[in-house]
Every structure is written in C-alpha cells, then in structure tokens.
Specification:
elongated; six-stranded antiparallel β-sheet; alpha+beta; disordered N terminus
Length: 134
C-alpha cells in the first residue's frame, strides 16, 4: 500500500497595500508534502511547515511591494535530518524570479524544526507552497 495523501489548508490573510492603496489579501496554501525514506509522516512535516506560514507572509510583504504574480507556486526539496533539523534546501520549482523572496522562504524553512526521528534515518521531503492574492 502506498503512502496516503493528506491535504491541509491554511489560509493566511494578510492585508497588502502599495503606497497606501489596499491591494487585496494574501492566501498561502501548503499541500501535503511528499516524504521519501525514513519514518516521518506527511502530517508531521506538514504541521511543522504550517507553523511558519505567517513568516512566509512576511517574506511576501517584504519582497513583493509591486509586480507580484496574482498566483504562483514554489516547490522545495530538503532533507529532514534525524535530529529534526532541515538542511540542503533547494527550490526545484520557481513560480517567480524574485530570488530574494525565494531565499527568504528557504531561510524560514531552515528554521523549521521537527521532532527527532526515532528510527535514526534522514528523509527527503518535497513541499509546495502556493501564494495567491484574493
């Protein structure tokens, strides 16, 4: 039997403005990650990533003052170490060319901690993050 897919929805509504003009609300959606190897579950990784959504929103607000696409996706691949640290973060799908923004999101992911793995194995995770203006 293959791994089950868990879809978690987290809506972060952050008012966005440009030069005093209201521009909309930011919606951030993180589908369940793909977890390869080790004994970590999609739910465990997803819950840890969900705790960082407000920081993802702050990255957006800092790095997109104008010209952000109305909807775009980033997909990251990283290692979830036995210790719970996240390392080797790579953006494998760039829905924007804003490198500073991508680096900001990667920095937030690097600060995400998981519980130490009981089985002692590292695993590879692929996590998408979808941003859209409502």
């Amino acid at each position: 039997m293959g791994p089950s897919r868990v879809w978690l929805w987290m809506l972060v509504l952050l008012p966005l403005s440009v030069q005093g003009q209201q521009r909309g609300k930011l919606d951030i959606f993180c589908p369940a990650p793909a977890v390869y190897g080790g004994s970590r579950s999609e739910v465990e990784v997803s819950q840890a990533v969900q705790t960082k959504l407000i920081y993802f929103a702050k990255c957006y607000k800092t790095h997109f003052q104008r010209g952000a696409p109305p909807v775009f996706k980033l997909r990251f691949r990283f290692q979830a170490k036995r210790s719970g640290m996240i390392t080797n973060i790579q953006c494998i799908h760039e829905g924007t060319k804003n490198r500073a923004f991508i680096d900001c999101i990667a920095g937030i992911l690097a600060q995400t901690l998981l519980k130490p793995a009981e089985d002692g194995q590292d695993c590879t995770v692929e996590q998408s993050i979808i941003f859209r203006i409502l």
